[in-house]
From TrEMBL:
The keyword Membrane applies. This is Na+/H+ antiporter subunit G. InterPro entries: PhaG_MnhG_YufB. The chain crosses the membrane at residues 6-25, 37-59, 65-88. Signal peptide: none annotated. It comes from the Bacteria. GO terms for molecular function: sodium:proton antiporter activity.
Length: 130
């Protein structure tokens, strides 16, 4: 049973990693590539580490594998968001067939602030009381 679970997790992780690689090659712009790579590689790493935990049922390896899975699941989406935001604010163009750009009039490109938010120069919280 252990070998079957190990094989299933290993193959599933490898498939997700291949999907991530395919997404990087096939998607038309940085933002779509980033999305495909982050989602698929997070799942791929998770399944590969589960395979390691099943293959070597020692408490040290299981705990390290689970800790790495939690770390990757928590940090990969945040890192992708930060890279995407930096790319957007740097002016990296969207794909020409992108239909909606909901951020085009929401960011102050000079100050790199979200307009209308609490840190915005136009927000009521930042206005001096008269």
């Amino acid at each position: 049973m252990q070998e079957v679970l190990y094989s299933i997790f290993m193959v599933t992780g490898a498939v997700f990693m291949c999907i991530a690689g395919l997404g990087i090659l096939r998607m038309p712009d940085l933002f779509m590539r980033l999305s495909a790579a982050t989602k698929a590689s997070t799942l791929g790493v998770g399944f590969l580490l589960l395979a390691v935990a099943v293959k070597y049922p020692v408490i040290e390896i299981i705990s390290r594998s689970l800790a790495i899975i939690v770390f990757v699941v928590l940090t990969a989406p945040i890192a992708a968001h930060m890279i995407g935001r930096a790319a957007y604010l740097s002016g990296i163009p969207l794909w020409k067939d992108s239909i909606v750009d909901r951020l085009c009039d929401r960011y102050d490109r000079c100050n790199l602030l979200l307009l209308g938010g609490e840190n915005s120069p136009t927000s009521p919280e930042r206005q001096d009381p008269e």
